[in-house]
Amino acid sequence: MSGSAADYASVKKDVKHRMDQTIEVLKKEFAGLRTGRAHISLLDPVMVEAYGQAMPLQQVGTVGSPEPRMLTVSVWDKGMVKATEKAIRDAGLGLNPMADGQTIRVPIPPLTEERRQDLTKVASKYAEAARVAVRNVRRDGNDALKKMEKDGKISQDELHQYSAEIQKLTDDTIKHLDDTLEHKQKEIMHV
Questions:
Q1: SS3 label, residue 88
Q2: Domain range list for the chain
Q3: Residue 110 φ/ψ, nearest 5 degrees
Q4: What pLDDT does residue 174 have?
Q5: Fold identical between 3-32+112-189 and 40-107?
Q6: Distances from the Cα of 6 to the Cαs of 49, 80, 107, 176, in angstroms?
Q7: Which of 75, 93, 114, 170 can bridge 138 by disulfide, Cβ–Cβ 3.0-4.6 Å?
Q8: What is the rounded CA–CA span in Å between residue 82 and residue 102?
Q9: Long-range contacts of 61-64 (CB under 8 A, 24+ apart)
Q10: Strand, helix or coil for residue 31
């Protein structure tokens, strides 16, 4: 492989990696959006005041989903039950946990039509932010290619060819983001 091809392969690998990361971030953000069904990732943002510091919920107990509209948190330390229950209630998720010994039951209320529409708007905002991130990655990749052409590492023809490949990668990634958004919106609106 010539030096220019190796340089381009490095740029393309970096662009692909960053675009793939953008998709993963979007999926994590979507996982936090409630769809009316219980999913353990719903409690991921909850931080519990434990032992003098804020800790992720997963570090004080085990989260389970025994039924479609119920989450349970089995708290390991009996002294942490009240703090965990308060953290879930205060997390701004609209949940009302109930302690039952060392287990906290968290019923998931059904979503109203208005709330579902709000959630689809939030999902759209997340997807648009991901599209912007992908376009920024494309710009960075193209800037690197232009610099390589300016430094004489690649020809103008190679610049056009490589730019077209990065554009195809961008188009494919944005299509994947749009498909993921469409799937999430259907999931949210499904009653």
A1: helix
A2: 3-32+112-189, 40-107
A3: -65, 150
A4: 96
A5: no
A6: 50, 55, 55, 27
A7: 170
A8: 10
A9: 61/104, 64/40
A10: helix
Question: What gap in Å lies between CA 14 and CA 154, rounded to an integer?
Answer: 18
Distance separating alpha carbons of residues 146 and 131, to the nearest angstrom: 22
pLDDT at 175: 97
Residue 119 to residue 161: CA distance in whole angstroms: 41
**Regions in the chain scoring below 70 on pLDDT:** 1-3, 34-37, 191
In single-letter form, the type of residue at position 51 comes to: Y
* pLDDT tens, position by position, 144-174: 999 999 999 999 999 999 999 999 999 999 9
pTM exceeding the 0.85 threshold for the entire prediction: no
Topology given in CATH for the domain delimited by 40-107: Gyrase A; domain 2 (3.30.1360)
Q: What is the CA radius of gyration of the chain?
A: 23
Give the CATH fold of the 3-32+112-189 domain. Topoisomerase I; Chain A, domain 4 (1.10.132)
